[in-house]
Design brief:
Blueprint: H1 11-20, H2 24-36, E1 43-48, E2 51-57, E3 62-67, H3 75-87, E4 91-96, H4 97-102, H5 104-119
Parallel strand pairs: 3-4
Antiparallel strand pairs: 1-2, 2-3
GO molecular function: endonuclease activity
Biased composition (Basic and acidic residues): 117-129
Domain DUF559: 14-112
Amino acid sequence: MRTYDNHRSGTVPRARQLRRDAGTPERTLLRALRESFPHLKWRHQAPVGPYYADILCFSERLVIEVDGDTHASTDAYDTARTAFIAREGYRVTRIANTDVMQNPEGVLTQLSFSLRKKEGAPTARKDEGVSTTKKGGTE
């Protein structure tokens, strides 16, 4: 069980408040992830150092940030936050609110590829699936 002994006071109440105040895109994506990848444990508003990850999977070392319009004006903060989370050993994927709401299947496909890449699944080679031999002959 993960404990919060190393976190500052107020971490758990703050995480609970962030979960209660989460927007529709964040909740929608979390629900879709839990349904699409039930073998993985998805955490919502989990503390990572001084920051809170929107969606986190410890086993895959993956943090998913669901970004709305407010993130357009916080580039420096987001860059520092992403760098810190990466130093903690997580991969950070940012997904726009509009993508979650308008193309949830595409978002899940993108995340599926991200998970497969982490697992070391073989990737298709440039010529894979294209035959270079002529029918009935040799190269």
